[in-house]
Fold:
Amino acid sequence: MIDPETLLSSRAMQIDASGIRRAFQLGAKLDNPINLSIGQPHFPVPDALKDAAIKAIREDANGYTLTSGHPSLCDSLRDSIAKDLGWPRDDASIDVMVTSGTSGALILAAWVLLDPEDELIIPDPNFVIYPALGPMTGAKVVSCNTYPDFCMTAERLEPLITEKTKLVIINSPGNPTGVVLSDGQMRDVAALCRDRGVMLLSDEIYDLFTYSSMRDERGRSPSPGNHGRDMLIVRGFGKNYGCTGWRLGYAAGPSWLIHQMSKFQQYSFVCAPSMAQHAVIAANGVDMSGIVAEYESKRNMVLDILSPLMHVAIPDGAFYAFPEVPGSLGMTGTQFTERLLEHNVIAIPGGVFSDRDTHFRISYATDDDRLETGLRAIAKAVQTH
Ligand code: PMP
Structure:
């Protein structure tokens, strides 16, 4: 007889995906809800990318690519890294690889760096895959408490680094908070990790969605990559171009690390989706600044409506806000999001992303009318208790 209890690994049993599933299940019962739970852009993929993907399929570019990515895409990624971070274009000590989503890069990095008993430091709150990298590798996950401003600073990180620490993950603009670290904060974190001999992984999947006050003179998000090359920069295309389902990301960092990650990609994901790789080569010339400006004004609407009623750390990037449930309500994040369902709004309780359940995440990647209706409903849920 097949008994799942005896067959499943303890690794599988340690990972709990119930929080997000529960939010989806509850939401599914509502009729035309204002869904502020979705972590993906609401705009369509730009035509240039769609056309390039279709062209690639029609021209039979449907087979495996090289494990580390189509050479033309790798070339254009080297250009982007040179332009954004000033990393030398032809330095053999650094390399790039194309991955199956940003998640693919995170998992490959964890596989090749972490042994059982090693320590991995992640921010709290965090993107839900980070804590799962512990059970996936046997490493111990150490949370860096970033409340109330959600900045994972060198000061907060330093006391957590031990001789067992191998990997530190930093994420800016952050999920679930939208908070962007400053250039100085990035510089200090990069220096600390270098001094202590630990690998810094910077998850920059939302880098394009960094709003005016935090963009540098090149129009980019602050990155530790501006302060060294002995780190792994992980970026993606899904959020920037609205093509999350195409599963495309990339990693740039020391050649020895990229080489090991490619080896593991060869025996796992094999390569990233071929037509998507062809499509994003065309993304190079696509200007997303109009969309980014629209998202900045949505962010402003969130702050205008919610900030007078509750604490919201300023989200200078991505498309999330992570407000604190007002203490006067005496409710957890889970209880408050359940109340929001009565107002036809779906949000995600903070406990899904954190050891604490005191906040809730909204995604403002939706059209302005629905966003305003949803925000006013949240305000009403706070005021009528
Ligand atoms: N990192 C962060 C911070 C994210 O929010 C997400 C997606 N929600 C990912 C990585 C994974 O992105 P992808 O779809 O490219 O795997």
Remarks:
- The chain has two domains: 4-45+288-383, 63-285.
- The chain has a mean pLDDT of 94.
- Residues 39, 101-103, 127, 171, 175, 203, 205, 236, 238, 244, 249 surround 4'-deoxy-4'-aminopyridoxal-5'-phosphate (CB under 6 Å).
